[in-house]
Amino acid sequence: MNGPPKQQVVRSWINTHNFDVIGLLETRATSINLDSVKAKTLPFNWGAIYNLQDSSLCRILIGWNPQKVAVHLVHPSVQLNGISTCLVSLLIALQLVMLISPGEAVAERPLWKILEVRFGGSPAIRLVD
């Protein structure tokens, strides 16, 4: 996501398909240029959350249209961002999980346990890379 061609493709895709929420995995945006990446990738006035707290690279970037969707981060981590969303116009709440998997079943078990404990009791959409 550090280069203008990728940013333009994502922004065009959001606009063409009228998305109100988008999650981008493995963006590799650095802390130095993250504001620029957000500005050039997400539509004007969109909200964004990302996982830079434990790394100098942004692996997960979640953007949303605040006129249509309310988003709250409920579980941040390096490999997993859980968000709670509410579709403002319909008052429908759901939870989304963005997970960057280690790719090995044994290594994934702790991550899936977090998902089961944190999100097991409510509807969820699990997006896995």
Low-confidence stretches: 86-91
- Judged by helices, strands and strand pairing, the structural class is alpha+beta
SSE pattern, N- to C-terminal? HEHEEEEEHE
Examine the coordinates and then state which fold CATH places here, giving the name of the CATH topology: Deoxyribonuclease I, Chain A
CATH H-level superfamily? Endonuclease/exonuclease/phosphatase
Gyration radius, in Å: 15 Å
| CATH architecture heading | 4-Layer Sandwich
Approximately how much helix is present in the residues? Answer: 25-40%
Count of helical regions: 3
How many DSSP E strands?
7
Largest sheet: 4 strands, mixed
Would you mind describing this structure in some detail?
The protein is an alpha+beta fold. It has one domain: Endonuclease/exonuclease/phosphatase (Deoxyribonuclease I, Chain A, 4-Layer Sandwich), CATH 3.60.10.10. Helices cover 29% and strands 40% of the residues. It has three helices and seven strands; from the N terminus they run H-E-H-E-E-E-E-E-H-E. It has helices at residues 4-17, 34-41, 105-119, and strands at 21-30, 47-50, 57-64, 69-76, 80-87, 92-99, 124-128. The strands form two sheets. The chain has a four-stranded mixed sheet, covered by helices on one side. Strands 1-3-2 form a three-stranded antiparallel sheet, covered by helices on one side. Strand 4 and strand 5 (80-87) form a beta hairpin. The longest helix has 15 residues, at 105-119. It is globular.
